[in-house]
Amino acid sequence: MATIAPGLGLPEPSTLHDYGAIGNLHSVALVSRHGSIDWLCWPRFASPSLLARILDTRTGGHVAIRPEGAGKSHQRYVASTNLLETHFELPHGRRLTVTDFMPVEPEVSEPTRPVLLRGLEATGGEVTVDVELSPRFNYGIEAPRWTGRDDRWSGQSPSGSVWVVSPAPLSPSGGALRGSWTVRPGDGQFLEFGWGPRRPDLEPPERLKSRTIGFWRSWVAAGRSRSSRARDPERTLIERSELVLKLLSQATSGAFVAAPTT
User: Which part of the chain is the Trehalase-like N-terminal domain (predicted)?
Assistant: First the structure.
């Protein structure tokens, strides 16, 4: 069984209160407020886990972004969407926001090219981030064999493959990809992580972000009559509950999964 080499010194997973959920109507990922994606079954809800640190910190698998000197952190959703922001408070008034989302293809019966994007934005000054990608296929059994160079990599295993496009060079180590770089205010960087041997012909990340925001807000607007008689903050709570339920539904059948975890 593959073991994840010591890396970012992430805090131990604690409770589900420390996690937010993102998804694409074919799968759901759980994102820790500490910056680590600790649960993901890809490419479908019923697939074996690819990231499962929430269950096993040594061999489960994760994709983590940690700013140096991280202090308090909290999460919130972009209004009326399932895009999740993790906000880190740093010394000297600096902040780092990591925005996680999966582009949605509701018309696709099979998730042929699922992608997870992690946007990085700094305010108040430069922020150095440490990044570690340690996917583990087939419930933590298989570590990928990485090929590539600099900012583009492919990880192969008997059970599948993933690709990575990074804002800066990464290096393979102990079955993981690791890197460290600076995020400057206004940079608008993205770390891209996808299923398959290589990055497909996708739209630019900012366009995917805008389109994903548009999808969720259009879906909310189409059903807003259900909560139109409610008052704030009740309306906000109803809307968030609806978004969570939609996140747990399968795109083409409309069937619900009982929980985001297996």
Answer: 20-141
Task: Encode pLDDT of 98-142 as tens digits.
Answer: 999 999 976 666 666 899 999 999 999 999 999 999 999 999 999
Sign of CA dihedral 24, 190, 129, 138: positive
User: The tokens of 241 are what?
Assistant: 């509950």
Task: Residue 103: count other Cβ atoms within 10 Å of its Cβ.
Answer: 20
CATH 2.70.98.10 at 16-247, yes or no: yes
> Residue 52 contacts by C-beta under 8 Å, 6 or more apart in sequence?
38, 39, 60, 61, 136, 139, 140
pLDDT at 130: 97
Residue with tokens 């709570």: 237
Q: Where are the domains of the chain?
A: 16-247
Whether omega for the bond prior to residue 233 falls within 30 degrees of 0, making it cis, is yes
Residues 211 and 41: beta-carbon distance below 8 Å: no
From residue 198, give the alpha-carbon distance in Å to each of 24, 115, 118, 147: 19, 11, 18, 11
Region of residue 167 (left: phi > 0; alpha: psi -120 to 50; beta: else): alpha
Residues 6 or more apart from 174 whose CB is under 8 A from it? 3, 4, 5
pLDDT at 1 over 60: no
Q: Where would I find the H helices in 71-171?
A: 137-140
CA distance 261 to 103: 20
What is the rounded distance in angstroms from the CA atom of residue 95 to the CA atom of residue 107?
37
Residue 81 has pLDDT above 70, yes or no: yes
pTM: 0.93
- Under a CB-based contact definition with an 8 Å cutoff, are residues 50 and 6 in contact? no
